[in-house]
Amino acid sequence: MSSVLQAIRSRDVRSLDINPNHWYVIGRSSEVKNQPVQVTLWKQAIVVYRDRNGEIQALEDRCPHRQVKLSHGKIIGDQLECAYHGWRFNNQGECSGVPYLADNQKLPSCKIKVYPVKEQDGFIWLFPGDVETQNFASPNFASLQQQPMGVPEWNHLNYIATVSIIKCQAHYSYLIENLMDMYHGHLHLNYQAWAEAALENIKEDDNRVDVLYTAQSYYKIDKIWSISQLFFPALRRLHPEPLNVSYIYPHWMSTLGSDFKIYCLLCPINETETKAYLIHFTSLNAFWRLHKLPVWFRRFLKNSLFGSAQKLLDGLVVQDVKMIEEEQIAYLENPQRKNYELNKALVSVQRLMKNKVEKMEE
Ligand code: FES
Ligand SMILES: [Fe+2]
Question: What's the CATH number of domain 153-361, 1.10.287.110, 3.90.380.10, 3.40.50.2000, 2.30.180.10?
Answer without folding.
Answer: 3.90.380.10
